[in-house]
Amino acid sequence: MSLSKEEHIRYNRQIILPDFGTEGQQKLKASKVLVIGAGGLGVPNLQYLTGAGIGTIGIIDFDEISLTNLQRQVLFDTADVGASKAVVAAKRLGQLNPETSFQVYQEQLTAKNAMSIIEQYDLVIDGSDNLPTRYLVNDACVFLGNSLIYGAIFRYEGQLSVFNELQKDGTRGPNYRDLFPTPPPPEMVTSCSEGGVFGALAGIIGAMQANEAIKVLADLGNTLSGRLLLFDSLYFTTRILNVKSNKENPVSGDNPSIFSLIDYEAFCAGPNGNLKDQSLITVSELNALIDAADSPFLLDVRELHEFELSNINSVNIPLSELKNRISEIPEDKSIVVHCRSGQRSQKAIALLKEEGFNQLKNLEGGLLAWKNEIDHTLEVY
Description:
The chain is of the alpha/beta class. The protein has 15 helices and 13 strands.
């Protein structure tokens, strides 16, 4: 794929690099990359890949920009709050480099659409923030033969690796399931919305992901295939662990047992946390019950600072304190547990079941659903 005069000028500082040259730039122009998530990791990936001259970039994200995003998602600004991340990202990136084409997917990546979307791309970058999506993306990439650039951040720490990369001998490198065969128990998983994340860390790990993606596409140097980088931004330390292929890997081992995409929400929820095994209540159903004589006990398991910003007149017992405050929950009433999106309440219900409570309902979609369907003025962060 030839380069125009303008492209030679635009990418000059890259083209003159040793071992890169015009051939490397042509490889990037011919490449198609899918970035999953236009958030903390996705934004720096998108910016550097666009600047580098990737020919086609897919952006998949169903979320809207919130004020809490701006601390680390520096592609957006205050005026963008409430707008689609994927749409705004594509518009801004198009201004950065009109030579790059963008495909926007304003939808959630699921087992139903993952294969049809990912098969259109040469390489996938995982900028997601939840375990079901990570396993879903990994398995789809293994089935389709795509290289996957993995990154994860939490508080002050980040991880980075290259999965399923095509090796010189024709085999594929280790994948996510070689490193993490099964997910940890749901109660051990804390999201960034619960635990926080250092803004600059997202830029560091995201830029490293873009670095590895460009190396894979342009066939440069040695990637992190078979290695996992651990980075601590608070103390600025790094470690690199070796990752080996596992013969027992259920999607790529000697005797695979998984041949198509599965229900990853159930897989990551564990035996006690599967939403399908819990009684759900919609926000409209709950709204109709609130003023009834036998109204349920509303339990908000978000952290106190979240509760103080906005709530629906519930009782606040943070998930982290729930086990030690069981006595504050009535045993003779039905209980509706809720949080921001439904993940922490899912864990809370599993814990309450172990304590003997059985009249439990999980608010489907959490307060985000309440804001969307019942009270648009509710501030949920």
